[in-house]
Amino acid sequence: MLINAPISRQAIDEMRIWARGSGSSPGQQNARTSFMSNSVDGGSGFDCGDYASWVDGMGCVHDEEIIVTPEEGWIDDPFFDPESLDEEDDSGGFYPPQPDDTECHVAYGGGGGVGPGPVPDPDACPIGQVKDANGNCIEGEVPCVGNPIKNPRIAPQEVSGVNGGQFGPTRSGGEQFHNGIDIENEIGSPFFAMHGGKVVSVGYEPEGIGYFVTIQSYINGEYYTHQYGHLQKDGRPANDTDVNAGTVIGVQGLSGNLEGAVISGITVPHTHIVIRKRIGSGWDLKNDYSAPENPKKIMTTQFDSQGNPLSTTDC
């Protein structure tokens, strides 16, 4: 088991000396790993379960030995503090830090950390970019849960304005029903899942929403599907794929009837979002889900009558 970044500066100093000691405990015998690895390895002398708060989400495994040992030249390490030595044990080594000595908190890679932090992921995208479903890095930032992009705005229509991009009988003087919300987005920009769930359909409607992705999620005690249309063909997750909120589920395109509408000036590039709530006992997307409902029910950002976000946050 490996866990980056054990506890505090004092604890690290103490564990270095303890590990370098001449004792024959399993931990000292095995403590021959690079200090830079900041690892936790199997042993029998250190029960991290005694600590109050280990790394969030990882839990604490009993009978684990923390190993933090520098290479040659350890005495010259700038973080070594000889005054932090714990009491010497009978075998000539040093005891590891005890629960009363320090809090169990992350000392590396966090606020006030003293070390180099976790090794960067070589496959990670540069800042300001995200990975699409094909593993390509594209420009974009992950929004907060409940939003499909950062700072979403309603896409305007030529005749009905931004009201035409909202849900309901909002077009043609109220005579045409719009079954979703149109979120303005630049061509080639990513679009994100508003909530985590499972991809239940990936398809193409040439005369309608073009390339789309439909995700099924459990939100506020109810099952919903949220569908995203007018995407590009590539960059979408496969059917039956589990996704998290903030997963890239597509790239903005002009698929379906959107291309002609943009060329003619009727609207601007956008992703069309439709949601339905589960009302039956099965999982049939046509028979066990409601007619389209207002996507604002599951969105974080809400909009005024002009399509402007009511929230001042950037998510």
Overall description:
7% of the residues lie in helices and 23% in strands. The chain is mainly β and 315 residues long. The protein has two domains: 1-119, no CATH class; 129-298, Glucose Permease (Domain IIA), CATH 2.70.70. A six-stranded antiparallel beta sheet has the order 7-14-11-10-9-12, with no helix packed on it. It has a two-stranded antiparallel ribbon with strand order 1-2. Strand 9 and strand 10 (210-219) form a beta hairpin. The longest helix is centred in the N-terminal third of the chain and has 12 residues, at 9-20. The chain is globular, with a radius of gyration of 27 Å.
Question: Helices, strands, pairings?
Answer:
Elements: H1 9-20, H2 26-30, E1 39-42, E2 64-67, E3 129-131, E4 137-139, E5 168-171, E6 176-178, E7 181-184, E8 190-192, E9 197-205, E10 210-219, E11 222-231, E12 242-243, E13 248-251, H3 258-263, E14 270-277
Antiparallel strand pairs: 1-2, 3-4, 5-6, 7-14, 8-13, 9-10, 9-12, 10-11, 11-14
Give the fraction of residues assigned to helices.
Answer: under 10%
Q: What spatial form do the alpha-carbon principal axes imply?
A: globular
How many structural domains in the coordinates?
2
Query: What is the distance, rounded to the nearest whole angstrom, between the alpha carbons of the first and last residues?
Result: 36 Å
Mean pLDDT: 74
The named CATH superfamily of the largest domain: Glucose Permease (Domain IIA)
Tally the beta strands.
Answer: 14
- List the helices and strands in order: HHEEEEEEEEEEEEEHE
Radius of gyration: 27 Å
Structural class: mainly beta
State the low-pLDDT regions, or none: 1-7, 24-75, 84-115
- State the name of the first-level CATH class of the largest domain: Mainly Beta
CATH-scheme architecture of the largest domain: Distorted Sandwich
By DSSP (H or I, 4+ residues per run), the number of helices equals 3
Strand order of the largest sheet: 7-14-11-10-9-12
The largest sheet is: 6 strands, antiparallel
CATH topology of the largest domain: Glucose Permease (Domain IIA)
